[in-house]
Amino acid sequence: MRSFPILPLLRQPRWWALVFLGLCLGYAVVALTTLPLSVSLVVLATWLLLAYRFRWGEPRQAHPPKRVWPWSLFPLSLWWFYLYLADSFGEVDLGAIFYHLQAGITDHGGVSRISAAVLFTLSAFFSLVAFTWLVRHDHRWRLLERVLVLFLLATNPLLFGITQRGAAIVTEDGEWFDRRFVEPRIVERPDELPNLLVLYLESIERTYADQERFGNAYADLKAIGNKGIVFEGVRQIDNTGWTMAGMIASQCGTPLMPAGLLHDRQFEPLDEVVPGVECMGDLLSKQGYNLLYMGGASTDFAGKGIFYRGHGFDRVYGREELEPRLEDPEYVNSWGLYDDSLLNMAIEEIQRLDTHSAPWGLFALTLAGHAPTGYPARSCEKRQGEFDGTDILYSVKCSAWLARDFLNRLEAQGLLDNTLVVIASDHLTMKVSAWEQLIAGPRANTFILIGNGLAPAHIQREASTLDLYPTILEAMGFTIDQHRAGLGVSLLSTAQTLVERNGIEEINRRLREENALQVRLWDGLQPQRREEPSASPPQITETPADEVTNDDPPTVP
Question: Which residues does the UniProt record annotate as the domain Sulfatase N-terminal (predicted)?
Fold first, then answer.
């Protein structure tokens, strides 16, 4: 058996190319699976053994090198782009990409990913150089890569997702969700309108409550939940998995289907966000509520300010409005204000709101749990010690404690009297240091209701964030039509949710084919109107009395 002459081989240019390609292939396998990093070394060793066995780059019957450009350069570049997205977010959501391209990605705080973007770009460049060298010096690879290009295009999840979404144009039923959409309608209001405090905890999903996997990171939120209703089983469906999508799902009862796919303006900046639906802000504004949104990040990012201003909110405060109020102007992160600063200002605003006779609603969004490492506030270091810069559980614990401390301070000042408090995660977290533990089992969002006479309880329902909208309205004491709003169902009622009735896989499959709901969401921005039918299509509502199948339920008269 011949020995494997490592050092002499590495002096040859082809082995530098082959080693680098093997490293890239090994990383790709690990990045696209949950396999440990050590597997990449196995992939590299296997690749090099094959290269040695078949003399890749130096065939026995060598043809003269040809100065050709491989057909695979473009699909390889697309794969590198996908790998960067997968490394950044864990699960790549095409809807998020389309939406952010149109709604705006300026003033984002993702500077921590700039170094990663540079590294991925350089790796992609050198891998393309190495592959080009291999194709030019080995005629067998020149023949093989013409087949390889088809394989790379067919298996790229980005292109596969675009192809799937394109099926909405020719689908037999692109109105499945639209038929189930119920226009929110308040039938009766309570005698005394309660105030509303909604605190979105960035990426702090309920999955962290599992002590075996995550210790006491979620302990303070468990303590909060002991005072109110804790909902278990709030899943995440497609098109609700990023901040704007999560807020729109929980306030409008609909997934956020981007405007660009079927819209003539494509990636022009938006001047309205989901103008075709009535959201919670619209309803509460009509009931006389004074509404305020506060967030530490810029409201220009992802159309956040456009959404809130266009849906009934009187004031919208983001980084631009709040940063000048900081005592220490340097105490900011790449996204904006730290959560202790934001929540201190939120208390000041609630104190002002409470002096007026009109009921108020304050919606706030934190930052501490933001992937990939979080942005824990300075005040947490006094309790938890120094942050190592990578452990997301440190940031989760910080976010949970800040939320509990915030509510305790408000309660001590009597500012939560006649107030419904909502604690919710905006979406499931993206890729973080605890990623493998998170995806090891079913995941769920945080959803807790406190106050307004609600008795403490735990409610286990298979639901989605679409169901928060009607649930919050009913928890405030409003009677709403059919216990429904949008595609959501009140979890305080016995009506079946979309998830209970159809399952997440079926819902996600239908979302890839839906186009009527998309037209509804962006009504007013869509120039090519469908012809109005002679009679209104039947609206479908799903109730426990409906037969439990995956087929369309009977039409409600």
Answer: 195-477
Nearest to 86 by CA among 157, 160, 163: 157
Cα–Cα distance for residue pair 355/307, rounded to 1 Å: 27
**From residue 50, how far is each of 46, 72, 301, 366 by CA, in Å?**
6, 21, 48, 51
> Which tens digits make up the pLDDT trace of 505-518?
999 999 988 889 98
Read off the tokens for 547. 């037969």
Instruction: Output the six-digit token pair for 50.
Output: 């094959």
Residue 439 has pLDDT above 50, yes or no: yes
Q: Distances from the Cα of 91 to the Cαs of 32, 39, 94, 343, 406, in angstroms?
A: 10, 20, 10, 30, 32
pLDDT (0 to 100) of residue 99 = 64
Report the phi/psi class of residue 30: left, alpha or beta, with left for phi > 0 and alpha for psi in -120 to 50. Answer: alpha
Task: Check if the beta carbon of residue 282 is closer than 8 Å to that of residue 312.
Answer: yes
Compute the average pLDDT of residues 25-40: 80
**In whole angstroms, what is the distance from residue 150 CA to residue 130 CA?**
20
Kind of pairing between the strands at 195-201 and 419-425: parallel
With cut-offs at 50, 70 and 90, classify the pLDDT of residue 556.
very low
Q: Of 69 and 107, which is predicted with more confidence? A: 69
Exposed/middle/buried for residue 64 (C-beta within 10 Å: 0-12, 13-18, 19+): exposed
List, in order, residues 6 or more apart from 82 with CB less than 8 Å away.
Answer: 92, 156, 157, 158
Pick from 161, 253, 314: which is nearest to 520 by CA?
253
pLDDT score, position 531: 47
Q: Which two tokens stand for residue 16?
A: 């530098």
Q: Angle, nearest 10°, between helix axes 13-31 and 38-54?
A: 140
* pLDDT at residue number 548: 39
Domains, the chain, with CATH or none: 6-168 (no CATH), 176-521 (3.40.720.10)
Backbone angles phi, psi at 157, to 5 degrees: -60, -30
The pTM for the full model equals 0.80
Confidence grade of residue 20 (pLDDT, cut at 50, 70, 90): confident
Question: What pLDDT score does 396 carry?
Answer: 98
Tokens of 515: 């186009």
- Contact at 8 Å (CB) between 76 and 153? no
Average the pLDDT over 280-307 and give the result: 94
User: SS3 for 332?
Assistant: strand
Angle at 189 between CA 183 and CA 225, to 5 degrees: 90
d(C-alpha 283, C-alpha 265), whole Å: 29
Number of Cβ within a 10 Å radius of residue 172: 5
Kindly report which listed range (96-110, 193-207, 311-325, 460-474) carries the lowest average pLDDT score: 96-110
Q: Is cis: bond before 372, omega within 30 of 0?
A: yes
Q: Where are the alpha helices (DSSP H) in 215-329?
A: 219-225, 243-252, 280-286, 304-309, 319-322
